[in-house]
Specification:
about 230 residues; alpha+beta
């Protein structure tokens, strides 16, 4: 299946992002309204990120904003990778928050060890961020958009921070969803679609959509302080 998908990508010239494999929830799952099996507990969950990954940036930022520094420990993989995937090289960075690229929880050498522990048959690309459950010994979630929602949701991990952070207020949700859909497709993922395009036509399509959205965002922010108005969302 992986080879067939790669063949289709090569033929079309388009960059196709891999779907996140692990999408479980901590606390009350907004998709179903049901409480998950994973209880919201201080220190139970561990976040793995790379400082070279934009998708990781938002999980690290929201973790800080939500006051989860003690409740959700964090480990950093090295900001570079080879064919073996994200690695814990042990090589430090002098002004970094962790001091070195080590797995503070297991002492793993590669992020792939978490994937093999969570799914022995996993054959996709090893990605970060990863939210790990220390009690059940598995990956809970590797989708950054899910992780940030858990970090600020009062019925999820956000309850452990006590910050009262609400980045998704009910009165703004429809507008936030509309903006997010375009920003994700044409900007967040758009730079990958342009940068990894294999045919000129695919590149130009992604490039034009990206810069049209830049113009749209510039106009939007010319009339308001933040994307959805006068407050951060």
């Amino acid at each position: 299946m992986v080879d067939q998908a790669m063949d289709r990508e090569l033929a079309s010239g388009d960059f196709k992002r891999q779907e996140s494999r692990f999408r479980d929830w901590v606390g009350v799952d907004p998709r179903s309204g049901a409480a998950s099996e994973d209880a919201v507990e201080h220190g139970r969950f561990h976040l793995y990120v790379s400082l070279a990954c934009p998708w990781c940036h938002r999980t690290a930022i929201v973790r800080e904003l939500a006051g989860l520094q003690q409740a959700v420990p964090i480990s950093y993989v090295a900001p570079f990778r080879d064919e073996r995937g994200w690695a814990f090289t042990g090589e430090g960075f002098s002004d970094g928050p962790a001091g070195e690229y080590v797995d503070l929880l297991h002492g793993w050498d590669f992020m792939g060890e978490a994937y093999r522990a969570g799914d022995s048959g996993f054959q996709g690309r090893i990605t970060v961020p990863v939210l790990w459950d220390t009690q059940r010994g598995r990956i809970v979630n590797n989708e950054s958009s899910d992780i940030i929602r858990m970090f600020y949701a009062s019925d999820s991990l956000g309850a452990l921070g006590g910050s009262g952070l609400d980045l998704y207020p009910k009165e703004l949700r429809s507008e936030i969803d509309e903006i997010n859909e375009r920003v994700y497709d044409t900007v967040n993922n758009g730079v990958y679609r342009a940068g990894f395009a294999r045919l000129q036509g695919s590149y130009e399509e992604a490039f034009l959509a990206l810069f049209e959205s830049f113009d749209w965002l510039r106009a939007l922010l010319g009339e308001r302080r933040y994307l959805a108005g006068e407050r951060i969302t």
